[in-house]
Amino acid sequence: MLLLFITFFKIGLFTFGGGYAMIPLIHFYAVDKFKWLGEEEFIDIIAIAESTPGPIAINSATYIGYKKYGVKGSIAATLGVVLPSLIIIILISAFLMQFKENVWVEYAFLGIRIAVSVLILNAGIRIYRKTDKDWLSYILLLFGLIVVSFDIIPIVLVILIGGIVGIIHALIVKNKGVDEDA
Amino acid sequence: MIELLILFVVFFKVGLFTIGGGLAAIPLIQEEVVARGWLTTAEFTNMIGISQSTPGPIGVNVATFVGFSQYGPLGSIVATIGIVAPSIIIIIIISHFLSKFRKNKYVEGIFVGVRPAVTALILVACYIIAKEALVNIPLFEASGNLIDLFDIKAIIMFVVFFLVMNKWKHHPVFYILIAGLIGIFIF
Questions:
Q1: Angle at the Cα of B76 from the Cα atoms of A118 and B10, rounded to 5 degrees
Q2: A58 vs B87: CB contact, 8 Å cut-off?
Q3: Is the same domain home to A142 and A173?
Q4: Among the ranges given (A69-83, A110-124, A168-182, B42-56), the one the predictor scored with the smallest mean pLDDT
């Protein structure tokens, strides 16, 4: 179990830029090196991790840990993957508090905020590309833009409505038969 | 104690509704922290910048940051546990019927509806953040001069970054460092 913890600690430490960056590293350790999972199962896990709430890295760590050592394993793996960033961010926060008034730091952040705007715009475009291009999506997209821009309902409700509409859509469109091999 | 509990509940909720990975957590956290007066949009955006440049999932990093800004290291830990807890619980529950879950028609159906909703949420989050970074509303209100509304240097930098980042797909850390350096020189 210590190996599990250390492995996910390493994965957490060496993946910059969020969940997707971790996938190759998790594959290397969990499939190639320690053979905790088969190739098929790994692909399934990534798909599941994408379709359940929460960051992909956390979800896959939890699953692998759980499969190896039950609930304790899932907590060990998740703790491992989260701990490096927790420590680093606490250190950076403490450091930034010291330099809050520094004019150079403030100017650097003016630039950084612009880069972040672009990064988030790109994330929006990326998700849009994955979205089905049909009237239902456009209505939901427009609905989301309007209600969130004007602060009409909380964001959580927008996601819930999206999910419910999606289920109703699946109920109506029965001929797709996506679960025929389940 | 009660404040820590609120922090936990807020991030538990964020974890529960972060569907689609990565930046999907951003609009949820933004809504909570700005409405509660924990952070300004500018402070929140700074945290996103740092969270993109440090290891680990961005949602978790931002949670750690927000927790620290409110109650120090203990706040970091509480917020991080909060955002991670829903994933652990859900994965443990569904790990028993893993492959069936993935191919279930209704699970796929949920995504058909959630993806466009999340797209809208992220675009609005981007609008809020970009507005803060690119236009200067206080200066415009003070002078009434339309030219003062737009921060020309910032807008040019935004356009250049948008073009360059989509042309050459370097790591976000690379662009954030460059943006920080340029910020020091031009502002």
A1: 75
A2: yes
A3: yes
A4: A168-182
